[in-house]
Design goal:
Shape: globular
CATH topology: Thiol Ester Dehydrase, Chain A
Distance between the termini: 29 Å
CATH superfamily: Hotdog Thioesterase
Strand content: 35-45%
CATH architecture: Roll
Largest sheet: 7 strands, antiparallel
Helix content: 10-25%
Oligomer: single chain
Number of domains: 1
Number of strands: 7
Order of helices and strands: EHEEHHEEEE
Structural class: alpha+beta
Strand order of the largest sheet: 1-2-3-5-6-7-4
CATH class: Alpha Beta
């Protein structure tokens, strides 16, 4: 599978609106890389207060979208029985840089790559773009844990 729709992503991740940020996952290379699409909308829950009259997608939500994309990539690539009743938790974020503000009414593309995995711990890196312009980049780690 080289593409996941929003419906398929909701089957893999526990996130729901308004916190499900990624709209699709494309160019999937199993357990290696993918591109997540985030449609940054004018009516997104954070626009009214961040900042009134000059809306910007918060950097922490870009990092959250990176994490959701990585979780979907991993969940789609591992055995379904291994992943059922599991959650992917962000462990740390390194080298996050926000280069340009992400203004609503755009398509944010997150190119992510799994750098390595060791047991249940995975390390990723990603770059965020709007119309080919780099907006942010980061490295992060996540772990797969049992649902309670």
């Amino acid at each position: 599978m080289d593409h996941l729709t929003k419906k398929q992503i909701t089957d893999l991740l526990p996130h729901r609106e308004p916190m499900l940020l990624i709209d699709e996952l494309i160019n999937i290379k199993k357990l290696h890389s993918a591109t997540a699409i985030v449609n940054v909308k004018k009516d997104a829950f954070y626009v009214q207060g961040h900042f009134p009259g000059n809306p910007v997608m918060p950097g922490v939500l870009i990092v959250e979208a990176f994490g959701q994309a990585a979780a979907a990539l991993t969940a789609a690539g591992i055995d379904k029985k291994e992943y059922e009743n599991k959650l992917v938790f962000l462990m740390n974020v390194e080298k996050a840089r926000f280069r340009n503000p992400v203004i609503p009414d755009c398509k944010l593309e997150l190119n992510i790559e799994a750098i390595r995995s060791h047991g249940r711990v995975w390390k990723y890196k990603g770059e965020a773009f709007v119309l080919g312009k780099k907006m942010a980049d980061a490295q992060w780690s996540a772990t797969i844990v049992d649902r309670k």
